[in-house]
Amino acid sequence: MRATLGILALTALGYAVGLAVYATDPTLLPYLLLYNRAVLSGYYYELVTGMFVTPSFIDFLLNAVSLYAIYTIFGSEAGNYEYAVFLASGVLGNVLTVLLYPPYTMSAGASGGIFGILAFYIARGMATTREISWVGLAFLAAAFLASSILPNANYVAHLGGIIGGLLMGALEPRRAAR
Predict the structure, then answer these.
(1) Where in the chain are the domains?
(2) Alpha carbon 65 to its chain's center
């Protein structure tokens, strides 16, 4: 299975888990979502589970559409490395969320990692061609700005994902050359 579609399947599974937990015992959700206070108390696994588990259909739908658009444009060119980009970028976004938002903040969703994938492909293209892609950077900025006006959007996680993706994309041609 193509990596982007695999990530989409994982986010669908996370949505199903979020719905099931919410329907059976909503008090368990803080143990699966990114809850800053819990992470600060040592529940570091939430930096990852918070990327997948969400009880919000809108969040899942926007993530699914975004992943499908990225797949349509880039076709999972990076292969399984895309999983690493998604996880590293998403975790970076969640770490920044824990550091910059108040302790009682909760958030969920894959958008930080998704922004990381998009930024990765843009930076990778620029590193490979050694030319700045103003169109790619403008598209990334427009996507970030559009997502930031949505209610309850975690723009810090999005920004962290972008930073992670840009770094991994800039370094990827060197990694692939080994």
Answers:
(1) 3-177
(2) 13
**CA 8 to the chain's CA centroid:** 11
Are 95 and 47 contacting, i.e. CB atoms less than 8 angstroms apart?
Answer: yes
Cα-based angle 13, 36, 32 (whole degrees, multiple of 5) = 25
Q: What share of the chain is helix, strand, coil (3-state, %, to 5)?
A: 75, 0, 20
This prediction has a pTM of 0.94
Structure-block tokens of residue 174? 């060197």
Quick one: which of 80, 75, 74, 83 has its CA closest to 123?
A: 74
Instruction: Work out whether strand 106-107 and strand 34-35 pair parallel, antiparallel, or are unpaired.
Output: antiparallel
Query: How would DSSP label each residue in 32-65?
Result: TSEEHHHHHTT-TTHHHHHHH----HHHHHHHHH
The per-residue pLDDT for range 18-46, each reduced to its tens digit, is 999 999 999 999 999 999 999 999 999 99
Domain 3-177 belongs to what architecture? Up-down Bundle (1.20)
